[in-house]
């Protein structure tokens, strides 16, 4: 058996093994992608499914309430009234945008979950009839 020559940087990998490493990495990336396979039937908890939109809604509501407080401070006679008049509506709009995005995200996730359940059911029917 022939021993591959060492590379100048001290690593013992040949060009062929580097090619194998990149193809292995690519297949690993495909396996660990964020989209779930239809074949996996592991059930996830509701928190695992809805944690991102719940966090976005919570942050949006907090920023929106902060904007209400800042805007209401501009009505009181204080030193930096112009700063509050500029920052208040900005926080209001940012909070409202996050709140609406989170609230729209929840029905989208529900629809995807229903489609995934239908797809898994159809796949199980196909495997039942065609694997006999």
Automatic annotation (TrEMBL):
Query: What are the boundaries of the region Disordered?
Result: 1-23
Q: Name one GO molecular function term.
A: transmembrane transporter binding
The residues that cross the membrane are: 54-78, 90-109
List UniProt keywords, sorted A-Z. Answer: Membrane, Transmembrane, Transmembrane helix
Question: Where does this protein reside within or beyond the cell?
Answer: Membrane
Q: Which domain of life is it from?
A: Eukaryota
Report one GO cellular component: plasma membrane
Principal subcellular localization: membrane
| Keyword hit for Disulfide bond | no
Please report the record's description of how this protein sits within the membrane: Multi-pass membrane protein
PANTHER family reported in the protein's UniProt record: PHOSPHOINOSITIDE-INTERACTING PROTEIN, PHOSPHOINOSITIDE-INTERACTING PROTEIN FAMILY MEMBER
Q: What is this protein called?
A: PIRT protein
Q: Which organism is it from?
A: Psophia crepitans (common trumpeter)
Gene name in the database record: Pirt
